[in-house]
């Protein structure tokens, strides 16, 4: 993690309350806020079923799509990953970090800093396993996840990107050693961008990128992917240092 990010996180962690405060129970969302560059942003942490202190838990940072933008902190709780974790807690035994992007903004600049800081605060506050930190995103969030992973490839054990628009090819060299599974529906007009990104990663020597294209489906593939048991199995099989 860069020096600037570490300094930012150190400031944000000052005064963090001990986990287990009133209202924090396994299987529930905990509302949080962070202030970055003078702006305060909401996020939620989902505590998995069976959560307790003293165990190092996997952590998933999930970046939502454009439809969950807002300022109330609630939209990200409805994204498909959170729904899958509630329907199948045995498949997602992990802390979920669910930051919210404000209207008319994307996962870049201060919003990327906010997402990383929310992740780091959650790892420290709730006992996250730094060897099992994962990143995922759907639609707008998929693009943000790829860019964020390229910014800190050493940070994440694996990345899932669903229905993203991937136009920035500067990420290829930095991501070619990161386990990355790209998903797209073949009826989505942006599918060619996922195909191109994956092809370039493979040409650069990546042996860790995977690509799945879903026949007959368009942009909204999110429930299909996150409810697939093979996806969570693959995700949690990845670990930093392996």
Secondary-structure arrangement, i.e. CATH architecture: 3-Layer(aba) Sandwich
Beta fraction:
15-25%
CATH domain class = Alpha Beta
How many discrete domains? 1
Q: How are strands sequenced across the largest beta sheet?
A: 1-2-4-3-5-6-7-8
Radius of gyration: 17 Å
Shape: globular
| Content-based structural category | alpha/beta
Q: What does the average pLDDT come to?
A: 91
The main pleated sheet reads as: 8 strands, mixed
In terms of quaternary structure, the protein is single chain
Report helical residue fraction.
25-40%
CATH topology: Rossmann fold
The unreliable regions are 1-22
Give the strand tally. Answer: 8
Please identify which CATH superfamily we are dealing with: Alpha/Beta hydrolase fold, catalytic domain
Structure description:
- This protein is an alpha/beta fold and 242 residues long.
- It has one domain (22-237): 3-Layer(aba) Sandwich (Rossmann fold), CATH 3.40.50.
- It has 8 helices and 8 strands.
- α1 packs across α3.
- The model is unreliable at 1-22 (pLDDT under 50).
